[in-house]
Amino acid sequence: MNGIVDIAIIGSGPSGAQAAKAAVERGLTVALLDFGNDNPALNSVPNENFSVLRRSDPNQRSYFLPQTMDPEASRSDKLGAHFTAPRAFISRDVAEFLPVESESFFPVQSLALGGLGAGWGAGTPTFEPFELERAGLPVAQMLRCYDEVAQDIGVSGASADDTARQVLLTRFAQPPADVDSNAAAILARYNKIKGRLARKGLTLGRAPLALLTQPLERPGLKREANPYHDMDFYGQSAFSVYRPAYTIRELQTKENFRYIPGAFVERFSEDEDGVCVTYLDRTTNGRSELRAKKLLVAAGAINSARLVLRSRNMFGVQLPLLCNQMNYVVCINVAMFGCKAADRRHSLAQLLALYTPQHRAPEHVAAAIYSYRALLHYRLVRDMPLPPWLGLLASRAIMTSLTLVGVHHPERRSSTKWIRLDARDGGDVLTAEYRPGAEEQRLIAADLRGLSGCLFSLGCVPLAVIGTEPGSSIHYAGTIPISAKGEDSPLTSNDQGRLGGSRHVYLADSATWRYLPSKGLTFSLMANARRVALAAANELR
Ligand SMILES: Cc1cc2nc3c(=O)[nH]c(=O)nc-3n(C[C@H](O)[C@H](O)[C@H](O)COP(=O)(O)OP(=O)(O)OC[C@H]3O[C@@H](n4cnc5c(N)ncnc54)[C@H](O)[C@@H]3O)c2cc1C
């Protein structure tokens, strides 16, 4: 595949991978440019049960413990750790190539093959029609694309659960994953008192996940159902948890697709006929160019904006920023205290609660419920106000009943949340501010109070609420939002993802969204990316 391609895509994260899949399926020639850091050693983590490996593998240190003790590694190696040792490559090179200066916003970014999707938690709730509308996304197109994505990546979920009408708006879900002992106890209690909880605004169901419960096989792709080894944070778990890299590998078997790794895209320019993308080729350390009829920028909402600002020489201009705020509620599930838990389990979120208090309705607060084991005692002990030996005893005593609830709050735009590209020393740096207002903080405090009451009713006694620093939710959006009035100004987009003031450049990630519901955004990102790729494909016709 030489010369000008139909579509160039920047980024192999969930957005870029799904945009590429949709375009290749339509017979277009596609080149995907990506920095593309990878860790082939991921495949050598044994496909075996966690407790067996802990008891018997002499090499377990290599995947259970961090390789370095540098500050960045230890910063992300906490209770709600973002990346375990085998996935540390996901944030490699970020500090050098994607600098962010801020005292109030600390994003997690990636230059990996698969982007942040190389380590995501695979929670796949759908947005409801009112949430899509607030984000500016056309409902009918999104619902169609949810179905396409679900069939492509494999999404499992429980269509009979109380939350299904809010979080599982696809006709193609596989059966839900089995829940672990802790979640089963919470679900049993919920089923007894769900009328009372509904009056308080809480519904609960099994978490929809991009985790296979049935095999998925087609040319270039072979993935198995989850083996319930509780090793999903470390190895590949029979490829049961969707990673965008699987899509890229599958596409590499097609003649009309080219993956270009080691490419750090610096800027793009546009003329009547198409787009020219300039990138640093890390194999030669020289500059290269790629020409395409259409360009889909899918570098993640923050870095897509960085590329647009740099390409248009718009330094010092503030763009809006959306990022869900997040808290953890640490609970003890009384029904499990002192009880043994079954070994057979997956490591991802077990349950998803939607809390819809009067001060938010119809908006929800999303609470993902995790059990704790595979992330190991040492992270717990380190965060306990006890000497290590006592911490270890305490940690062992509570482990099977420990319940972590990751709470995300809805997010809307404000003038105190922004990013800006500043020229600096012949290059540039992104600066950011994220300061929620007093009213927003009041709402969040009310969310946490009400939700803690519901958790208590479920038998989960809240021990602590741990706030996280802005950026930790890893849900980013809204930097180049869809124009509300349909005008074609340079730092907005239209509802098909086309960048304002451009004929050939599209934003295929969440940069265009005007609102972020509390639910995980990545299923919607992938559906949206397919939708934007189709819009670009239609223009080519
Ligand atoms: C630990 C963790 C758990 C998560 N859990 C969930 C969850 O359960 N549910 C959920 O919905 N979401 C979750 N997320 C968030 C999810 O991973 C992101 O929403 C998603 O990955 C964003 O996809 P994206 O393709 O838009 O961007 P990214 O994943 O950030 O991908 C960006 C891509 O662009 C490339 N790139 C960037 N800049 C350049 C450049 N200049 N040149 C070349 N390439 C470039 C990168 O290499 C990368 O491939 C989680 C994230 C993490 C880290």
Write up what this structure looks like.
The chain has 541 residues and is α+β, with helices and mostly antiparallel strands. It contains 15 helices and 21 strands. The chain has helices at residues 14-25, 50-56, 61-64, 71-75, 94-97, 129-135, 139-153, 164-167, 181-200, 244-251, 301-311, 377-382, 388-398, 438-457, 522-540; strands at residues 5-10, 30-33, 100-101, 202-206, 216-218, 221-223, 257-260, 263-270, 275-281, 286-297, 318-320, 322-323, 326-333, 351-355, 365-371, 402-408, 417-424, 427-434, 460-467, 476-477, 505-507. The strands form 5 sheets. Strands 1, 2, 7, 8, 9, 10 and 21 form a 7-stranded mixed beta sheet that branches. A hairpin with a 4-residue loop joins β9 (275-281) and β10 (286-297). α1 packs parallel to α15 and α7 (139-153) crosses α15 (522-540). The radius of gyration is 22 Å and the shape is globular. The mean pLDDT is 93. Bound molecules: flavin-adenine dinucleotide (FAD).
What is this entry, summarized?
This protein is an alpha+beta fold. The chain has helices at residues 14-25, 50-56, 61-64, 71-75, 94-97, 129-135, 139-153, 164-167, 181-200, 244-251, 301-311, 377-382, 388-398, 438-457, 522-540, and strands spanning 5-10, 30-33, 100-101, 202-206, 216-218, 221-223, 257-260, 263-270, 275-281, 286-297, 318-320, 322-323, 326-333, 351-355, 365-371, 402-408, 417-424, 427-434, 460-467, 476-477, 505-507. The longest helix has 20 residues, at 181-200.
